[in-house]
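INFO batch 0412 | record 1 of 1 | parsing
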Amino acid sequence: MNSASADRFLGEYQLKELLSENAVSRTWLAEQVSVSRRVLVDELRLECLDQKQAFLADVRAKAAVDHPLIGSVYEAVNEADLCFFAHELLPGATLKDRLEAGEPLPPGRLAHLLRRIAEAQHHHEMAGQATLPPTLENIHVDEHGVIRLDNLAVAGVRPPDQSTRDIARFGETLRPLVADGRPGTTRMLTLLGWMRGEGLEEALGWTQVRDICGQIEQQLSDPPPPASPTRRMGRDRKHKLSTRLVAYAAGFALLAVLALALYLRPKNPPPRLRANLPDAILIPADKYPTPDGTEEELCAFRISPHEITISQYAAFLETLETLSKDQRERTFDHESQPPEKASHLPADWAALLAAAKANGIWNQRPVTLDTPVVGVDWWDATAYAEWKQARLPTQEEWFAALRKEVAAPAAIPPEDWRPVTSATKDLTPNGITGLAGSVCEWTRRPAANPANPLGERKWLIIGGSFLKPGSNALTREWTSDRSLRRPDLGFRVVFDAN
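INFO prediction complete | emitting tokens
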């Protein structure tokens, strides 16, 4: 496409290349100069400023989407003669690129991709979000096989038949991507036919597409049964061959049993990686930059150098168990906690704790007791902080801790969800870990979303997440649901300085 002038800026975004345009807007590849980050910028055309309200309504709809597979909105700018928004540049090639290159997908791989697409579309459906129909151009797969989807949310009411129409259209769109003559080809083609409504009295929903894809993945991961003989052997050769076949079969069976035993044998657990970090790090009183480009005077405070771990949270739950004997288990609950919330157990806590104690696997990932706790809602995090005589950080405190001695926060390399330790790349000069990656974190109070500055103030989740490959220490999300729990959502706490 067309290159932009070297000095063309929209706000802090230097425009690099015009990727596409239509009658209303242009989409640019740009660089966010303050954090050296490549982004996409959608600019409302100057001659279309009379359509600004509709443009911004679509931006607000996109900013309200909260799902790890779906691209994020970073910010929106609305000035007298300027209206644009910046959003995530998703990594990898699109399925359209794959189709144009003549590279169909093995059925098992396509089933995995379709299952993830169905999960994202079901999220839109459950939230009642109107969206544009997904196309192959909207599905991105990076070099590690991670799939992400463009944010297709738009303003308006979701039509009752939108999922049915989208599923049928996608069933047709994916058909050329099914590799021929491979195990599972017939199953995938049958599913795509069902998505188009062939041979069914009732249309499939996204949850059914997801579940069927999961079954196909499972079936293709299992070894095929041995083929049955179709001809009788000659009587004069039958005995010798049968004897040999029995011997070979016994040998192969023994090898299979041994291989299976070796595969299933419990592996020696990895050595425990104990955190060797201070309890809290002092952030002195000073004037600090805020995430929204202003400055704020903050009192001194101390912040935990890592997210609260599974072992730390387990100690809190043990205290609540003791208090429950005297009916005082609600001692640390926030005053506005709903009465129907009767427990502070994280999602899937029993399995998570058992895996952590055994240095095992939870949710297909290794965990130890030093791994950050996840699956906690805002009420859980607030109650833990109260128990520790601490509090959740405000976004201003969190950002001040990030910016202390850090010139380019976006340059901090994110790490995966792993036990907390100072031996990590995701580390600030003053010793704070997990800001750019690991898990994203609850903050103390609601805040305005720059994409909708006049809209409702919502509860803020801050920091990078291992489930969002494009995120980093500058990532923020807004939610109206303090009961939200996710496998990539945790928290840390702050204390008064004295």
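INFO post-check: The CA atoms of residues 29 and 106 lie 32 Å apart.
INFO record closed
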